[in-house]
Amino acid sequence: MYELKCSKCNTVYKCSTYKRKGLELYYNDVLEQEYFMSTCDSVFSMEFMRRIDIDIFRKSASFEGIAYAYNDEHLGIEWMNSLNNTQILDRRRLSEAWYKKTLIEMKKNYNLQTDIEYILSDKLEGILECEKDVLWEKFSIKWSSSLHTDNCNHEECCKAIVIDGHMKGTRSVCGATEVKTIDSEELGSIHMGCWKMPMKGSLYCTEHKHVKEEHKKKPTEGAKTEEDSECNTLKENGHLQKFKSAGVCASVYNCGIINGMRELYGCESLTQVYIFLIWLAKVLEIFPHLLAYDDACHLKKFIMNPIRAEKSEYSKFLTTLRIVVDKMHFANHVDKWCRRNVNPYTDDLFKHINTEACEQTFQFVAKFKFATKHMSCGKYNLFMLKISEMYNNDRLVRNRKRIKEDK
Fold first, then answer.
1. Is 303 exposed, middle or buried, given 0-12, 13-18 or 19+ CB atoms closer than 10 A?
2. How far, in Å, CA of 71 to CA of 91, rounded?
3. For 155-211, how does the pLDDT look when each residue is reduced to its tens digit (9 = 90+)?
4. Alpha-carbon gap, residue 245 to 178, rounded angstroms
5. Which backbone phi and psi does 223 adopt, to 5 degrees?
6. CA of 309: how far to CAs of 111, 163, 268, 298, 300, in Å?
7. Coil, helix or strand for 349?
8. Are residues 301 and 267 in contact, defined by beta-carbon separation less than 8 angstroms?
9. Distance set, CA 128 to CA 100, 123, 166 (Å)
10. What is the C-alpha separation between 291 and 164, in angstroms, rounded?
């Protein structure tokens, strides 16, 4: 990597960073430069990096697909047989550069940090895990602010919130259970499984590799075992059964703008949905009093629990919401209590509300279900954050266009 050193102050200048007194920082205008340095061996043009954003958003392209297409275009279709690996674009180097660029972009977008330290590749995942909660908080604040309402032009903008779980965009997680603890003022201490990515060939991450792997497939009773045959192809003794996350729980305004998202583990439990709502109540600048959810009957009873409802100002706030089932799922709610208390068709305030906003958003998110399968926790959250940002910006344009066409 080409570098220059100042003879007076000993500052070392590189393509995207400068190093002074042992601290290497990115230039403040690093994203405006012609090239972006991921490592000393990997440098990409910013034009190419911006094209990756477009290919991911518009074409649902994977990093592997983008890298292969680049090699096909610049090296020819015989590049896989090439012995000169230095010319081949590796998908891992490509994704690594994209995550670094995107993290810097999000930090600057949310005014989180002016002087950003150079991101070492082996520290990337740890940094992303530490930053994900702050990034999502800033995302929710941004998209519940006047930046959204002043530019949306939707006739029913921010009149209601629709929440729902999306279980298609899952990823592999560690199989250790009840090893993480989340403290909640409203629910107390909640024990959860590990959300880190398992090691290759194992059910567990490096932190929990000591846990005994008891989840291998066992032979069914009476079935042949390996000792009965020299051929080791018995399907009952197959591969490890990987653990997966439960996707995400998303919160969307009825005008189609995503205002929050949280990863789910195990299942779409009421506990996780409730914690997500409490978090939204704390960070959203606009939290309307209308809420739609496909399992509104159980959620409403959970929220209205008299002991839980008095735990905090935010739990009290949730009890004031008008909660209904979204119109698409209401046909499944046949209980008389549901018909009386969470019916979207008998509540005039929901007459013109798009209660299917989440389902419509998930049509877009579902395109990435294969791309996210093997992502780690930090990378998964940054990836979802980035595509949510791009989706919201696109939705604002579409909302304004629709209003003009209606006029």
1. buried
2. 10
3. 889 999 999 999 888 999 998 988 888 899 999 998 888 989 998 888 899 888 887
4. 14
5. -80, 155
6. 35, 20, 21, 15, 11
7. helix
8. no
9. 9, 9, 22
10. 11
Q: Which residue has the higher pLDDT, 305 or 220?
A: 305
Q: If you search the block for the tokens 């000993």, which residue do you land on? A: 10
Reported confidence tier of residue 217, pLDDT bands at 50, 70, 90 = very low
pLDDT digits (tens, 9 = 90+) for 308-320: 999 999 999 999 9
**Rg (alpha carbons) of the chain, rounded to whole number:** 25
Cβ(374)–Cβ(127) below 8 Å: no
Count of Cβ atoms closer than 10 Å to residue 245 Cβ? 21
Task: Locate 260 and state its tokens.
Answer: 């929050």
* Spatial CA neighbour of 16 closest among 75, 34, 180, 200: 34
Element (H, E) at 367: none
Query: How far apart (Å, rounded) are the C-alpha atoms in residues 36 and 80?
Result: 26
Would you state the pLDDT for residue 209?
Answer: 83
Mean pLDDT of the chain: 88
What's the pTM?
0.90
Tell whether the torsion through CA atoms of 244, 122, 32 and 2 is positive or negative. Answer: negative
Angle (deg, nearest 10), helices 124-143 and 270-283: 60
